[in-house]
Amino acid sequence: LSVSSMIRKSASVIFFHGSGDTGPNVLAWVRNLIGRDFAGSHIKYIFPTAPKQKYTPFGDEISTVWFNRTSVDIDAPEEVESMSKSYDIANGLIQNEVDLGVATDRIIVGGFSMGGALALHTGYRLNMELAGVFAHSAFLNRESIVYESLEGKSMHPELCMFHGTSDDIVAYKWGLDTFDKLQNLGVSGTFTTLDNAAHELMESSMLDVERWILKKLPQS
């Protein structure tokens, strides 16, 4: 056993991948961008893979997706039944960390694209006691149940969002609209515009996420 693996992890970060991807792939993508793993020997970084299921935007092909959508459009209705299955996965991942002795307020959830949407649902509908939420190139449907869930709530995890201005899959304005709505419901956080970035993670954004994680989850 290496020394780092023997150190008890006092915090956890769950990073949800985008549609059609896998956990190992997004981990490799981050490593490729920043040249190493995310820092923090006291933090356990988890990169789960979504179950295989039919995905309507891919012509009903079987793909690794967290939930189904009728279309990738901010005006589309949410697929409630499909979303509830993704909630079970997110809740299970969080509960597993809690069972291992990690406090809920020492857990951050985040993700890219569809994974970012699941992170937003997780932190602002399922569990508002988390330490924080990050979402990259992601959005919530205009009539999302998340907004309803936030009505009247005063405590929320801090939000860290990133979006490229040249994103041709998830429009930049959808991400900004999501952030503005969440802010109006009391969520505090930052929205970082990535000039000329497409639907992609960036080295700068991953380094920003890392700094933010280390600030939110200091060694205890």
From TrEMBL:
Gene3D superfamilies, A to Z? alpha/beta hydrolase (3.40.50.1820)
Spell out the family assignment given in the record's similarity comment. Belongs to the AB hydrolase superfamily. AB hydrolase 2 family.
Q: Which InterPro entries match?
A: AB_hydrolase_fold, LYPA1-2/EST-like, PLipase/COase/thioEstase
Q: Which residues form a coiled coil?
A: none
Q: Could you tell me the keywords of this UniProt record?
A: Hydrolase
Q: Does the keyword Hydrolase apply?
A: yes
- What is the native source organism of this protein? Drosophila hydei
Enzyme Commission numbers on file: 3.1.2.22
Name of the featured protein? palmitoyl-protein hydrolase
